[in-house]
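Feature request disguised as a bug report, sorry. It would help if multi-protein outputs had a clear separator. Right now it looks like this:
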Amino acid sequence: MSSPIRSLTFVAYALVGTAVGTVLGLILAPKSGAATRNGLRRLVGEMAAQFPICWEDLKQRATSGRQHRAPDASFIQLYREGGGG
């Protein structure tokens, strides 16, 4: 099998796997669609609010070698409420 065909086969399998995973995730979701969307919206909002803080922390660690800062309690609580742990 030539390289372009092998690459196309890989992409096709990846797309099929993504589609199957998405469908199974939607079917087996423990919450309704509205609840899932609201939880994702809250999680993304919290992550967006944390991004500047994390970015600054990352820059400081890169320049000073400081250890990783633990996430704050509100982010952990939001993560747990969203079904993450």
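(second protein starts here, but nothing in the output says so)
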Amino acid sequence: MDVILGEAKITPGFNLSAKYIIHTVAPMWFDNRVNNKEELLKNCYENSFKLAKENNIKTIAFPCLGARNIWSSN
């Protein structure tokens, strides 16, 4: 599944307790190669909420979008 920065897609939850999984790709906040991070991050949330509404999803949880492990050596 290809998801572009700021977009969102939905898949079944399969064996998870969630009925659906909404996938979104946020820019890494500390990545200086991306100039419009605020707009892309906003789009992640807006597109995720849009998919939730279209699929009659009543509850939603987000991980920390756009973060990375700052202790990573990568």
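Even a blank line would do. Unrelated, but nice: The mean pLDDT is 86.
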